[in-house]
Amino acid sequence: MEEVIRFALLGLGIGATYALASQGLIIVYRGSGVLNFALGAIGMAGAYVWWELTTNQGWAFLPGLVAGVGFAALIGALVHLLIMRPLRHSAPLVRVIATLGVLITIQSIAILRYTATSKFVPSKLPTDIVHIHDTIVISADRLILLGIACVLTLCLWLFYRYTRFGLATSAVAESERSASALGLSPDTVATLNWALGCGLAGLAAILIVPIVTLQPAVLTNLVLAATAAALVAGFRSFPIALVVGLVVGIAQTEVTRYVEQTGVGTAIPFVLIVIWLIIRGQALPLRDYLLQRLPTIGSGRINWPGIAIGLVVGVVLLAATPPIWIDAITITICVGVILMSIVVLTGYTGQLSLAQFAFAGFGAYVAGRLLATTGMPFWLGIVIGIAATIPLGILFGLPAVRTRGINLAIVTLGLGSAVELVLFGNTDFTGGFGGTQIGEPNLFGFDLNAASHPTRYGLMALACLVVVGLIVGNLRRGRSGRRLIAVRTNERAAAALGISVPGAKLYAFAVAAAIAALGGILLAFRTTSINYAEFTSFTSITMVAYAMIGGIGYLFGPVIGATLAPGAFSERLLNSIDSSIGKYIPLIGGVALIVLLLVNQNGIVKEQIAQIAFLRQKLGKLIPFLAPKEKPKRELPQPSGEREKVRPMTLEVKNLTVKYGGTTAVDDVSLTVRPGQVLGLIGPNGAGKTSLIDAVTGFTKMSPGSRLALDGHDIGRMSATRRSRAGLGRSFQSLELFEDSTVLDNLRAASDPRDVGSYARDLIWPTNAPLPDTVLSTIREFDLEEDLDRQVEDLPYGRRRLLAMARAVATESSVLLLDEPAAGLGDAETAELAHLVGRLAKEWGIAVLVVEHDMNFVMSVCDELVVLDFGRTIATGKPAEVRNNAAVIAAYLGEEEDAHTSGASARTAPPQSILGTEGA
Length: 920
Description:
Elements: H1 2-32, H2 39-56, H3 61-84, H4 92-114, E1 129-131, E2 137-139, H5 140-162, H6 164-174, H7 176-181, H8 186-212, H9 216-220, H10 222-232, H11 238-258, H12 268-280, H13 304-320, H14 323-348, H15 356-374, H16 378-402, H17 405-424, H18 427-430, E3 436-437, E4 442-443, E5 446-447, H19 454-477, H20 479-489, H21 491-496, H22 501-524, E6 529-530, H23 537-550, H24 557-562, H25 569-577, H26 585-599, H27 604-619, E7 651-660, E8 663-673, E9 678-682, H28 689-696, E10 707-710, E11 713-714, H29 720-726, E12 728-730, H30 743-751, H31 758-764, H32 773-781, H33 797-810, E13 815-819, H34 827-842, E14 847-851, H35 855-861, E15 864-869, E16 872-877, H36 879-883, H37 886-893, H38 911-915
Parallel strand pairs: 9-14, 9-15, 12-13, 13-14
Antiparallel strand pairs: 1-2, 3-6, 4-5, 7-8, 7-10, 10-11, 15-16
Helix pairs in contact: 1-5, 1-8, 1-10, 1-11, 2-3, 2-4, 2-8, 3-8, 4-23, 4-26, 5-6, 6-8, 10-11, 10-12, 12-16, 12-17, 13-14, 13-19, 14-19, 14-22, 14-23, 14-25, 15-16, 15-17, 15-22, 16-17, 16-22, 19-20, 19-31, 20-22, 20-30, 23-26, 30-33, 32-33, 34-35
C-alpha cells in the first residue's frame, strides 16, 4: 500500500501540468468554440523561449518564465486574429484542421531551430525531499506544482464566475449574436481568451520540461493528456479538469510501475477519452447541432484520358530517372494511396480521423512480421495485412457511432497514439532495434526489391494507386457513396430517410483502414528492414494537411498533396536545387495548409477544375471541340402503371411525454393520424410541436409510459432509421437537405434499396437502379423535372421546400409528418402547397400530420386539428370547431381563461392571422 501511495504522489507533478494545460484548452474553447490542437505546440514554443533565455542568455528563472508565458500568449492572440477570426464562419472541421496547420508550423520551426533531440533541463524549483510519512517521501517541486495548479484553478474559477470578463465569455459562448446586441465584442473576448489559454499552456510546458525533458514532439503530445481532462470537464469546469488531470497523472505512474509493457502507462489518457465519449456521446446529433458547409467534393466520375496521361507520365518518370528520383516518386505514390483513405473517410463521410497513419503502420506491421517470421509469399502478406487492418478500422470507428466532429478527432488521435506507443514503439514486438527484416519481396517470380529494382517496385505502387483511385471513384458514384455523403451532410436527415448512420460510418472506417493499410505496406516495403517507429501520430496529422491541400474531396487531390510528404517529389525537387531546402518541406506544408484554408478550403484540385473549365469556355469559341458540352435534357420514363396508393397505416400516439432535464416539452399528449387524412398540430411558439415530431420519429427520447404504434405495432423502442423503414417519414423545419448533392441524388438517397451487398458491389461496379414508380410520380407531383441535375444550393427557397417534402415522400412513407412546410413561402406558394398536401392524403392515401403556423393553410387542408399549449392538449376537433374555441384563443392571446392559461405569457399575434377568421 505504501508503494501505491508513493507512486501516486509521484504522479501529482505531471498531473498538475496536465490540469494546467487542460485549463488552457477550456479557456480557448469557452472563448471561441475551437478545440486548439496546437495548444501543446504553442506551449512548447514558450518553453523554448524560457530555456533559451535562462540557459543561453543568463536570465533568472522568473523573468524567463514571464517572457516564455508572454510569448505563448502572444502566439495565441495572433493565431486567433490572423487565422481563426477569418475562419469564424467556416465549418468546425475546417477550424480544427487550421489548428493542425498551426501545430505543424510551430513544431517544424522548433525542429529546424533546436532539432528533435531531447534536452535535459534541471528543475528550477526546490527539489528537497518532503517526508509525508516515515517511509513515504515526495520531492518539493511536485508539491509546488500541485499548489500552483490548485491556486490557478481557484483563481480561474472565481475570475470566470464573478468578473465582467468571465460573464462576457459565458455570454459569447452561449450566443455571439446576442452578446453583440448587448455591446460585447466577441472578437475581443475570443482574442483575450486565446492569449490567456495559450499563456497557461506555456506555463504548463515550462513546469513540465524538468520531468519529461525538452523536446518538440513530447510537448506537442501534452495536449492529448490535457484533452482527456478538458473533455470530462465538458470544456467548462475548471475544478473538474483539475481533478481529472491529477487522476490521469497518478494513473500513468501507477500503471508504469505495475505494467512492464512499453507505452501502456502513456496510453491511459486515450483510454479515458474513448470510454468517456462512448458513455456520454449520442448516436444522433441534437436538433440544434450546428450544420456548416464542409469542403466541396468531386463527382467521382473517371477521367479516362487524364488517367492515361498520368500513367504515361508516371511510367516514363519511373523508367527514365535516377534511383534517387524513383524513390521520391514512389514515396509520393505510396503516400497518395494513404491519402485516398482520407478522401473516403473525411471527404465523403465527414469523419475527421487522425489515425490514418496508424492504420498504415498496422497493415505494414502485420504484413512485415508475417513475412519475417513465416516466409509467406509477398502477395499473401499484403492481403492478410489489409484484412487484419479492417477490424482495427471498425474498432476505431465505434466511437464515431456516439460522437462526431472535434470529439471524434480527439478519439482517433488518442487511439492512434496508443497503437504507436504500445506497438510501434515497443522493440519486443517489432523485431528489436534493427527493425523487421523482410528480405527481398517478389511477386509471382518477379523480384520487387526496391533497392535493386526500384522501377519495378514503383510501377507496382503506381498500379495500386490507379486501382485504389478507381475503387474510390466507384464508391463515390454508387449507392454507398450517396449514403456516405448523406451522413456527411446531415446525420439527422440521413436517419430520417432510413439510412443507417452507424453502418455508414463503420463502413467508411473499414474501407479507409484497408486503403491506408495498403499504402502503409507499399511505403514500408521499400526497404528490406522496416522501422515501425516512423509511423507516428504526428504524421497522421500531417497526412490530413496534405489531403486538405490537394483537395480532400477529389480523386486527384491525394496525388498533389502527397508531393509534400517527407522524401517525396517536392522535397527531392527542392534538394536538387539546394540540398538545404528539403528540410523545410514540413514547414512549407504547414504554412501552405493555413494559407489554403484562408483562401480556398476546397483544395488545389477544385481551383484547377475551375481554371480548366474557364479555359475550355474561352478556347471553345475558337476551337469548337474544346467547348464544354451541354448536358442532354434528362428524359424521365413513364411509371409502369397507374400510381398506386401507399400501404395504409395508422399512427397512434398515446400519453406521449417528452422532458429536457426538468422542463416538460410535451405533456401526456395522445392523437391518431389516419390514412387519407390530414391532422393539423398547432399551437404557439414553444408549445412542443416539433418536440412531438422529434419524439415520434425517434430523434428525442420519450418518457416512460409513452406509447407509439404504427399500424398496430409498437415502434417506441425502434431507432429513427428503423421507424423510417417501417413507413414513418418526416420533413424538417430547417429543411436539412443534402447541400453537396443534386436534386436527383437527394431523391435517390431517399429511395435507394438499403441492401448491405451494395457496400461491397459498389467498390467494383457501381450501379444505379431505375427510379421506382413512387419516385417518378413524386418528381412529377412536385414539378421537379427541370431541377433534377441542379445542385440543391442553387435552388430558390420555394423549390427547396418542395424538395424537402418530395424527399420524404420518396421513401414510400405511409405516414408523413411535416414540420412547418409553408414557412417562408408567399401566399400563392402556400396555397399551392396546401393543395399538394391535400392530394398526398386523398390521392396517395398517406396519413399526414402537419405542424404549421399559417392558419389559412391549416384551415384549408386539415381534416382535424390538435392544439397544444405548454406541451399539453387544450383542444381537438374540426377546424371550424377549433377556430372559435375559447381556450385556443386564450392560448394565443394570453387571456386568462382558466388556471392553466392564466400564467401564459402574452402572444401578440392578431387573431385574424392566427385563427384564420374572416378578413385574414
